[in-house]
Structure formats: C-alpha cells, structure tokens
Amino acid sequence: MTRLAPCPLSPAMDRDPAATPDPLADLPDHHGFAQRLSLALATGADTVAVLNVRIDGFRSIEILLGRDGADGFLHGLAARLAQVIGTRGMLARGSGASFLIRLDQSAKGTADLLAQDIRAALRHPIATCAGSAHATASIGIARAAPGRGDDRPVAETLIRQAAIAAVAARTAGGNRRVRHTPAMDAHLTRQSTIVQALRQGLGNGEFTLAFQPKFALPNDSDPDTEDAFRLIGTEALLRWCSPELGRVGPAEFIPIAEKTGMIGDIDDYVMRAFARQLGRWHAAGHTVPASINLSPHSFEDEAMASRLLGLLERERVAATAVTVEITETALLAMSRHTIANFERLKAAGVEISVDDFGTGYSSLGYLRNSTVSEIKIDRSLVLPLPCALSDQATPDVAGSEAILRAILTLGRALGLRVVAEGVETREQMTWLRREGCRTIQGFLAGRAVAPELFERLHLSHRPGSQPSQVA
Ligand code: C2E
Ligand code: MG
Ligand code: MG
Questions:
Q1: Buried-most residue among 135, 154, 175, 195 (CB within 10 A)?
Q2: What is the CATH number of domain 191-469?
C-alpha cells in the first residue's frame, strides 16, 4: 500500500526547533549540512562527494498540488531519498526544492551510482494528501579529493560546486547527473559578470545597431549579371562594446538577458534605435526595407506591437517597410498576447519573418495561415554546402542539401520569401541560386556594419537598380 506523505498541519507545528532545524523535512538545513561537512573534512573523515539534487519544474508541482500538497511532496521525497541513501551518507535540505547529500567513502559504490539510484527511485510517483505527482531531478556532483591535503576543497566550496553542476544539469534539459568541472566555474563567473555589465551598459549607452544587407540574386537567365546583387533590405543587429569585457556578441548576451529579465529593456532600446535610424534614412530618401530582431519574451508583452508601431509613426517610417524577425521556437508557444501582437503588426503592414528556420521545432501549421511572410534558413544548414575544393557529397552535405531543397519547396508552395543566411562562398551562392533560392544574406555579399558605413556602401550610390558587386 502507498504511504501518503503528510501535508503539514500548519506552520506552527509543535516541533523542537533545535532538534529539527528544518521543520518541513526533519532534516538539517544548508547551514547544518555545511557545519557537519566541514567537521568531517577537518577531521580527515572519508567524505568523497557532495550531491545537489534539484527537483525539475517544482513550480508545476506547486500549481498541481497547492502549497500544502507541495510541502507534503517534499516530505515524501525526503523519505524516499533517505531510503535510497541508507548508510551511504547524509541527507539535508538545500535551498528551494533541492536536497544535499554527503557521500562517504566507506559507502558501497560511487556518486554516479547513487545518482543513478536516485533517478530510479523517482520513477514512481510520490503520493500526498493532495494527490500524487512525478518528479525528475537535476543532480550535480562535486567530488572531494581525499588525501590531497591542502588542495581539498572546504565544505562551502564543495557545496557550491555541486550546486553549479546541478544548474548545468538543469540547463542541459534536466533529469540527468552532471559532474562539476573547473570550466563550469569560469562559465558561471563570465555569466555573472555579463549580468552586472549588462545592467550598467544599458544606462551607459554601450549598445549600438549594425546593419547587414540582404540581397536578391539575379535570375539564371541573365548570365551577364552573374555577380550582381540587388539590395532588397537590411537587418539590424545589436552590438555591445563593454568597457570591462570588450565586444560581447548577441549570441552570448541575449540568452543571458532573456534569463534575467533584462531582455525587455534591451528590445526596447533596439526598437527605439531602429525606428530612429530608419527615420533618418527615410527622411534622406533611402526607403530601404529593414528587419528588426525581437525576443519571444517581448511578444508576451501585450503592448509590444503598439509600442513599435508608435515609434515608427513618430519617426515617420511606413510600417510596410519593416519586418520583425522572431525565432522558430517562439511559434511553438503561441500565447494569447503573442498572437495578438502578431495580428496587430500584420494588420499595420509589418511583415513577420521566421528566423533560424530549420533548427527548432517549427509549428509548420502556423506558416500556412498567412501571418508569416518570410523564412530565413539558419546558416548551420548553409554551412555544409560543397565548396570548390571538395566536391564530394559527404553525408553532411547530402543531408543539408535535402533539407534546403525541402525548405525551398515549402517556401515556394506557401508563397513565402526564403532567405538563405550565412552565405560565405560563391559555391554556396551558386548552389542556392540553382535550386531556386532568390534571396541571400551573408559575408559574401556584405557584413553587418555601422549605419554610417552601411549608408556609404549600400545606400548613397543606389539609384534603385545599380547592383552591388561580390567583393
Ligand atoms: P540572427 O538574427 O540569425 O542574425 C544572423 C547572425 O549571423 C548575426 O550574428 C550575423 O552577424 C551572422 N552572420 C551573418 N552572415 C554571416 C556569415 O556569412 N557567416 C557567419 N559566420 N555569420 C554570419 P550576430 O549579430 O552575432 O547575432 C546573433 C543572433 O543574436 C541573431 O541571429 C539574433 O538571433 C540575435 N540578435 C542580434 N541582434 C539582436 C537584437 O537586436 N535583438 C534580439 N532580441 N536579438 C538579436
Ligand atoms: Mg535575425
Ligand atoms: Mg538567423
């Protein structure tokens, strides 16, 4: 028979706080754990590893079972962990929905084996008075180095390393064990530095926009213009030069900004700078169509579309000259606000482009209903195309070619503009052109440059049809 994990009666349960420092799970808390670990390490005891067991998606368990049910769940979980650990080590509560384990050397088996046993024990649901629930865990492992004297990490370092490894396990998708490595510390330090520098950077005007040209390829029927590209648009790409960190690429800082909630301020800056620059160009007669990248998080803000449209209007930029790029994965979780923003933009004449197409889980159904005007093939698919030196069709090349052909066919069938990103070589361009791709972006045709340089290179000598040349 399943034993129900108790739901706590009330916060003021009659317990002796000295005997049970954490009234929830009758276990030592972080502080108690650190003290005992410290003592064990100082007296040369045989601790070999610390494990941090973080419950994945605990928030959804709280929503499912309610606050009391979730507390009961943690009781049940603690009991199950204690059973699995047995005499192998010691269990304690960590912060939030996490547990700490000290694995002793005298124990049979390794930390990996213990982690494996914990994951096996979690395969069965935990019953509480509010219902039962399943959980998976991200398990971080930090190993002590017995016998290495002074090199042996102190208790807090071991606990921290196990927590860092657990975060790495969760970032990798959860439901797995990850051992701590020194590279993780470097990564985390870099991330924390970026978080701090981002906050300052926004206030200090350290961000700028660069513009990359987007070109139409000539038709096969016109061999004389083989090298001629016709500018059909530009994409605004964010650049950050921090006095402390130097140049940091958006591929590194945008995900951090998304995780820490700073993306709203960043996208806001991008919208304002984008509208201002387009306003200047349009006023000077350069009515080049332009794309802006916005994070899926910003689409969750119900006022986003109105804000962008308001900024464009203020700068006297026609909404029809603007395309908003959003990554493919954002189409998966189409919330009410995201759909409303899409529709508002579409109604005003803004085009929607699906960025990095071919790398995420696409909601192909959404491509059908005419909200999307453009798909941009991710450059990871363009990269393996054959180059002049090696003409052999390796499996990588053959696979990419098949996917590219399928995307081009899909685009044609749905009447979408298909842009190939990251085109760096003539061979890639020739292949794409032969397969019917009409629009490219990439270093071959032009890099992202500051607006003044973009104007000089691509706009000033542009009597509408004069081609740019392959560099
Ligand atoms: P994306 O929108 O797919 O942008 C294309 C990226 O590929 C840009 O990198 C561009 O510089 C790079 N690229 C273009 N042509 C080539 C090529 O031929 N070869 C190679 N190797 N790379 C090429 P970047 O500027 O580092 O941006 C990376 C990503 O960061 C962007 O991917 C976009 O998802 C995001 N991002 C950039 N600017 C913004 C922004 O203003 N707001 C938001 N939310 N995201 C942005
Ligand atoms: Mg883009
Ligand atoms: Mg892209």
A1: 135
A2: 3.20.20.450
